[in-house]
């Protein structure tokens, strides 16, 4: 099989799986925004940093494990791959149980910390309390979705994730609209979909259909450290979605108010889809790059890199087009025009916010490529700059200098600043022959 064909064999399921993961939360937002109201939609947005954090922790371990598993598979060391697979699943499940227990115990302080206002506090608590209860299934399901691709079954990942997304939509309609359970119904719909997805992936591995199988785990610190080191940059990228949401919420509440939070909620649903698409491209690329890196096949790595780069450019232009030409249609999915203030603000903000989509994918791609090549320090630097340091600096400075509505152009500013640094790193890697 040619490298190009193999790349698309991994790319399509990876991107599709990320889209369906995004659909889980987008569908909740659609049903909550249209079925309950714009303040309930704002509440779901306030809860998103927690969801992103849980997802980022799973990503930290799953991507690190997948990179090492495919690397050892490329060397023909299946025993080591099974060892890392078993250790990974047990660690993720344990962390999930711990997070669920602590978060439920400290639920009220958590809701306050996330920025819930008097109008949204009850909504946030209802939604978050239910989602937290399903966190372990969410984390294990995502981890197994990544590892099933490392096991050579990329099509299986999209099959199960698509099924879970369909279940989520059906339950959203039944619980939110038909039974009138409101925001609680949306939370239960997401949780049940993740639970069923988790069970489906577990059945695949228990049946031992592929190379990876469960064995008695032996927890070696050297293995765990290697997984965390490689997975850290990708985790930073995912966690940055939650951090960015939190930072924007903080600034928007101060400069614009509750209607700004509802508008930003719409923006973040599309932004999450952009980020998940770019992460999906990385996940289609990374197992192959790691595999060929294990074989020391530089020519194949370069071919995959160029294919990934072109794919990122295509999707970046697509999302930019949507933000400029289809912005009203996107906003109507979440907010009725009857909520005039939130609706008009969302339409206007999405146009400015969309300029960041032209650059975001390039930064995520460069960071992901460096992760696959085990250049973890460089990858972490890129993720930390674009998702944390520069976000805070730009958001704190720009409203006071250019006015409150300039908040919406912040992404293109901090993404461009990051791209200059990331591009320099990439050029230096090529110059010394790493790529």
TrEMBL record:
Gene Ontology BP terms: response to antibiotic
Pfam families: MatE
Source domain of life: Bacteria
InterPro entries in UniProt: MATE_fam, MATE_MepA-like, MATE_MepA_subfamily, MdtK-like
Major localization listed first in the record, in broad terms: membrane
Transmembrane segments: 7-27, 47-72, 84-107, 127-148, 160-180, 186-206, 236-256, 262-283, 304-322, 352-373, 385-402, 408-427
Keywords: Antibiotic resistance, Cell membrane, Membrane, Transmembrane, Transmembrane helix, Transport
Protein known as: Multidrug export protein MepA
Origin species: Tindallia californiensis
Classification lineage: Bacteria, Bacillati, Bacillota, Clostridia, Peptostreptococcales
